[in-house]
From TrEMBL:
The lineage of its organism: Bacteria, Pseudomonadati, Pseudomonadota, Alphaproteobacteria, Rhodobacterales. This is Predicted branched-subunit amino acid permease. Belongs to the AzlC family. It comes from the Bacteria. One of its GO terms (cellular component) is plasma membrane. GO terms for biological process: L-valine transmembrane transport.
């Protein structure tokens, strides 16, 4: 049975829960603006990255490879590999948002950033019987404080560039963002196994170029988590 949730209440709940991420989105976006500036990109090119791609991790990967004079094909493939996690995000939200009209699904896909997915996934797990409209309203609310700020902070970083003192240490935003998203999701043994494997393998493969090690570590972590879940399910069946 579908639960009746006022759309405005769903929207503002998403908005409120998205607000804390502003503390890390602002420096994260500014950091990319600075990085793009230092890589020789002009203002239009930097903003094009953030508006069209809207995916910080792959944007940093692409700029790093461009700085290293990698081929265009390598830049595109590496950025796509980093963004493969979005396919998993889409699969996780499809049971909840899949019935939406195509244009709404397109908007959901465009605004699907790590922070918004983490919030939406957690909310839908807690209240899976919300109506489709309420789930979309929550998603829109979660996007509101996060996505526009990404554009604005990127612009600020690109314009200010070297005027931002190194003492500000904007790069703290990257690990803090992912810690804030991942920590609440570590609720089971498979999740913990996947997290542990990803950490260990990322360190083992740290010598590999262009973030390749992170991709391999992520793949091994997913396999480890899935196998752990299967093992626990089989053990439960036997008992």
């Amino acid at each position: 049975m579908t639960e009746t949730v006022p759309l405005s209440a769903a929207y503002w709940r998403g908005f409120r829960q998205g607000l804390p991420f502003m503390l890390v989105i602002a420096p994260f976006g500014m950091l990319f603006g600075v990085a793009g500036n230092e890589a020789g990109l002009n203002l239009v090119e930097v903003m094009g990255f953030s508006v069209l791609v809207i995916a910080g991790a792959s944007q940093f990967t692409a700029v790093q490879l461009m700085n290293d004079h990698a081929s265009t094909v390598m830049v595109i493939l590496a950025a796509l590999a980093v963004n493969l996690r979005m396919a998993m995000y889409s699969a996780a939200l499809a049971p909840h948002l899949g019935p939406a009209p195509a244009w709404k699904r397109a908007l959901v896909a465009y605004f699907m950033v790590d922070q918004v997915f983490a919030l939406a996934d957690a909310d839908y797990r807690i209240a899976p019987r919300q109506s489709l409209a309420a789930k979309l309203a929550y998603y829109a609310g979660a996007c509101t404080p996060v996505c526009p700020l990404w554009y604005v902070s990127t612009l600020a970083g690109a314009v200010l560039g070297q005027a931002i003192p190194p003492a500000f240490a904007l790069d703290f935003a990257v690990p803090v963002t992912f810690l804030a998203m991942i920590a609440p999701l570590l609720r089971s043994i498979p999740h913990l196994v996947a997290a542990a494997v990803s950490i260990v393998m990322a360190l083992v493969f740290a010598f590999l170029p262009a973030g390749t090690g992170l991709i391999l570590a992520a793949a091994l972590a997913m396999v480890a988590g899935a196998q752990t879940e299967l093992f626990l399910a089989r053990r439960k069946e036997r008992t």
